[in-house]
Amino acid sequence: MMNNSTKLALRRREFLASVPCLILSERFLLRSSDSHAGSLIQQELPEELSPKEAEWVQNSSMAKELLDYFGKGYSCAESLFMVSLKFLKKPEDLVWAAAGFGGGLYHRDLCGFLTGGIMAIGISSGMLKKEREEAKEFSKKGVNQYWEWWTSLAPLHCSEIREERKSSQACVRLGQLAAAKTEDLITPVKSSG
Length: 193
What we know:
This protein has ten helices and no strands. By secondary structure, it is mainly alpha-helical. The chain has one domain. α7 runs antiparallel to α8 (132-153).
């Protein structure tokens, strides 16, 4: 049995004062180990497509067309969403829905190629000739597949993908791959419509 002199005495006020530190340290640990993206933060992302990736991109109309928009007045999110809209034969004016997602939500946060792909999956789900719940399930499944694919490839955040003032070639590669993956995920919708 433990006597009172060996117990840790922590007053309520001291405990409450320490809670923010505990939460912040837990968030840091979770973020740095989030999926396997934490290990990707430490390494440089490739700037060139591998031969297998190059073949995939070459067979994707969206991936080839992405370069007509990315870096030419369109952000990452806008360029991926634009090629998705064109692929799905939707009005190009809808690209404005992606305007606030560029530059990692203009805070170097979530990558626009990640958010743009998710937006494309969402809009394609709305094109399904199915009940709302079934279309939402299609969206959920597509987003989960896209998220898992993305986190196996790259970090979630722009600031972790590309340091400021560095070449954007890694972003070009990620954009082409994101367009090819998005096309794979939304093709069933285009085919059914």
